[in-house]
Amino acid sequence: MCAIGSETWGLVAYLEGVNSPDVSQEATVLQPGSAGVSDNSDFKTVMTWRGIGEDRLEQVRVAVTGNRVKAYGRIVAAATADREAFSASYDLVTNDAGVTKRLSLHLVRAGGDAQISITRDGEDTWLVQTARGMERSDFGGAQDVDLALSPFFNALPIRRLGLGKPAATPVAVPVAYLYLPTGEVKSATLQYTPGDDGVGVVSPVADTTLTVDDNGFVINYPGLAERV
To answer: Which InterPro entries is this protein grouped with (predicted)?
Structure first.
């Protein structure tokens, strides 16, 4: 596990002070390994993950109503040998079936900042808005967006497809994949394999088994991050 320096712990305090939409004192904090609130389909919570092997933090405030998910989060990452330092603030909304409707992201790097918007319309076409203009794609029939280096976004297909349940079967999940810190958006397919010890995932950046809670949110993503 990495040693978190004083600068990064300062970022923890900053993240915890971020004013996110709809934040209230009623938020329920899910502890790693806890049973969560599976007896109630509607809940609000704040989750935090720390990077494994590098100084990186992600914190997200989530509001769940049935299968609908609204999330406001931020990733803050120190520089590594092969990646520059960056921060990425995101705002995600799904529909009532848990299919992504919109992801808005504000990416900050040393060279400047960028706004990225990924929206899925009613005809299953994705609209990607960046500084380069607007692009359209079906991303291979994707219904989810995945954000590199984020354990939170794996919960979208896991929850939507019930991959954390005993009767779940392996599935290939096409996604609109947003790479960090480059900000590139490309088509990708993630392979999910439910098992007794968790949910296996093969993605553009990993081949591992995720530990998830009863609500489908990641507790441990080996080699990437763990929830605190």
So the answer is: Glycolipid-bd_prot_put
Buried b / exposed e along 207-225 (16+ C-beta atoms within 10 A): ebbbbbbebbbbbbbeebb
The confidence score (pLDDT) of residue 11 equals 54
**Total-model pTM:** 0.83
Find the distance separating the first CA and the last CA of the chain, reported in whole Å: 13
Q: Which amino acid is at 44?
A: K
